[in-house]
UniProtKB/TrEMBL annotation:
Gene3D superfamilies: 2-enoyl-CoA Hydratase, Chain A, domain 1 (3.90.226.10), Tetratricopeptide repeat domain (1.25.40.10). This is Tail specific protease domain-containing protein. SUPFAM superfamilies: ClpP/crotonase, TPR-like.
Length: 582
């Protein structure tokens, strides 16, 4: 009897709770019932247009009306919060931006002064609190943003929003800064290493997928114990080795960034062709060595030296050994740290000319500024082949009417000031239609990625081209430098089209850990990037190390120095065969 009564009470309680919940849900549904959906949509479009044109004050009443009518659209809370922020209404901005987070955030792009990821919104809330004079909540929301892997932490330290307490000790500490008074050099470096460890754990999507936590801790402790016996440059290289152990290609250290320990480089640029390691670029006074094959560095063969660079080369796959290994071979302190040379001031390199005549050359390192990983350089004293002619231009095209083709080189996922990527793709579609183009050739061989959020117009254009030209083909030229956002585009192209892939395997994985969060070490000034996000562009079970080409084509040194683009020539042969069959 007692049990029956108990169950009756429980069931009655559930029934009442259900009624209350239903009533609440009904109330919310009623609140979000739009009487005139078309008018609502038109007002929403108007509001977003006002925001994109920075007409913040005009946008506010429209957005306030919309959010009162309908409370399920986080996009509107987001742009209303930004509008309040830009007009100095910081308390209101905080309320609306918090509503955005409560609704799961937004993915809106192209919004001035805004950034869609939730951690960016948290930082915006911190700034609003700071502008409103609430230091305690500003610091709290800064820490929330950092705990959510905010990308640009080092650049916030001098942000105008925090000017009232920029030198506050608590504020300084969250950036790793503490007084250097009385600290010895070794203690300062240990402080830097501690902060770097904290930043890796704070930022990295999964720091111990390639190296165990135990091994990571051993490396950190080992480096700390050796600080006094190492030069600043050697410490930087040891940190590069730790980064190499983290795996995935978005982890890197910028070797010229530190105030203490900046690395110099050799005055030449190496490139690994299918027939060996060659010098492809050089500083003034060293141009005569361009075209020479590298047989050995120190007492280590070029082949073995290249494999040794994997110790500092955090990479997604072995194509990055071919791409970035030659870059690391140009850094004498890295060569020393890998046991390839002993003297960093004089590096002996055995070179061989085109007549197989060998000689040893001593090179002295030079200072330089890191501006990104090197691309294959243009040829000296020779007309440039198409694929090298405009590598500095993010995107451009050339009509090849004799083959009913259009060649599109996409070198960086970014926006040009003179023409947005979307406008460029509109022009592509127009030119293809006007000129009876049947074949599209997309060259991604120089593309290291960029802002992946702007890729949809390019992907849509490629899909549209294939649909509108069933008798033609889409070709993608790809290789070791097809990386990051360019890899994402390549993966999507293979998912949604029947594109023919030509060249080398790609420089990343279809599903990979990407993005990049910045760190800056307080004492040395050393800067770098740490992987922060997982990109599942392909199926969940897709564990491929790269996307392989359908037509494998490697570049030889002979072809490069003679200005021959074998991959493009093969594409033209396939096109000609296709056209002849019609």
């Amino acid at each position: 009897m007692f049990k029956i009564k108990t169950y009756t009470i429980v069931i009655l309680g559930i029934f009442i709770s259900t009624l209350i919940g239903s009533s609440k849900a009904f109330s919310q549904s009623k609140k979000n019932s739009i009487q005139n959906p078309i008018e609502y949509f038109n007002k929403r479009t108007e509001a977003l247009s006002l925001v994109k044109n920075k007409k913040w004050q005009e946008a506010i009443p429209v957005l306030e009306s919309l959010t009162l009518q309908y409370s399920n659209d986080a996009d509107l809370f987001y742009v209303l919060g930004l509008s309040y922020y830009e007009t100095g209404q910081f308390k209101n901005a905080i309320i609306e931006l918090k509503k955005t987070l409560e609704s799961g955030g937004t993915i809106l792009t192209d919004i001035p002064t805004g950034s869609a990821p939730s951690n960016d919104i948290m930082i915006k809330i911190a700034k609003a609190y700071a502008e409103d004079g609430d230091k305690e909540n500003a610091l709290l929301w800064l820490q929330k943003g950092f705990a959510s892997r905010y990308d640009e932490k080092p650049f916030l330290k001098g942000d105008p929003a925090f000017k009232s307490f920029n030198e506050n000790q608590e504020f300084q500490q969250i950036f790793g800064y503490r007084s250097q008074l009385g600290l010895r050099r070794g203690e300062s470096w240990v402080s830097d290493i501690d902060y770097l460890e904290e930043r890796i754990l704070e930022l990295h999507y999964t720091p111990f997928h390639s190296m165990s936590k135990t091994d990571f801790d051993k490396k950190i402790l080992g480096l700390k114990s050796e600080i006094d016996s190492l030069s600043d440059e050697q410490i930087v290289v040891e940190l590069m080795k730790i980064f190499g152990g983290l795996g995935n290609g978005h982890n890197l250290i910028i070797p010229t960034s530190p105030n203490k320990g900046a690395l110099r480089k050799l005055p030449v640029q190496f490139y690994q062709f299918n027939d060996g390691l060659f010098i492809v670029g050089a500083e003034k006074g060293f141009e005569k060595w361009i075209g020479y094959e590298v047989e050995s560095i120190g007492n280590t063969t070029a082949e073995d030296a290249l494999q040794k660079t994997n110790a500092v080369n955090a990479r997604d796959n072995d194509m990055q050994t071919l791409w970035l290994g030659p870059y690391y071979l140009g850094l004498p302190y890295v060569l020393q740290g890998l046991g390839i040379i002993g003297n960093t001031n004089q590096v002996t390199i055995a070179l061989k000319d085109s007549n197989d005549k060998s000689q040893k050359v001593i090179m002295n390192p030079v200072s330089w500024n890191f501006s990104g990983f090197p691309k294959m350089p243009k040829l000296r004293d020779r007309e440039q082949p198409l694929f090298l002619s405009k590598i500095e231009d993010p995107y451009w095209f050339k009509l090849i009417p004799e083959n009913k083709s259009i060649y599109v080189q996409f070198n960086a996922v970014t926006q040009k000031e003179t023409q947005s990527l979307e406008a460029f793709t509109i022009e592509l579609r127009s030119q293809a239609s006007k000129n009876d183009i049947q074949h599209l050739i997309l060259d991604l061989r120089h593309n290291h990625g960029g802002n992946g959020s702007i890729l949809p117009p390019m992907l849509k254009t490629i899909i549209n081209f294939e649909l509108m030209n069933p008798g033609g083909n889409v070709f993608v030229l790809m290789g070791r430098e097809t990386f990051s956002a360019a890899q994402n585009l390549l993966t999507d192209i293979t998912k949604y089209t029947n594109a023919i892939l030509v060249g080398e395997p790609s420089g990343s994985k279809p599903n990979h850990i990407g993005e990049a969060g910045w760190f800056k070490l307080p004492y040395s000034g050393l800067m770098g990037l740490i992987s922060t996000q997982f990109h599942q562009t392909s199926k969940a079970e897709d564990n491929r190390k790269w996307i392989a080409p359908h037509i494998p084509v490697n570049l030889s040194s002979t072809d490069y120095f003679n200005g021959n683009d074998t991959a493009l020539h093969i594409v033209m042969e396939v096109i000609q065969t296709t056209e002849n069959r019609k």
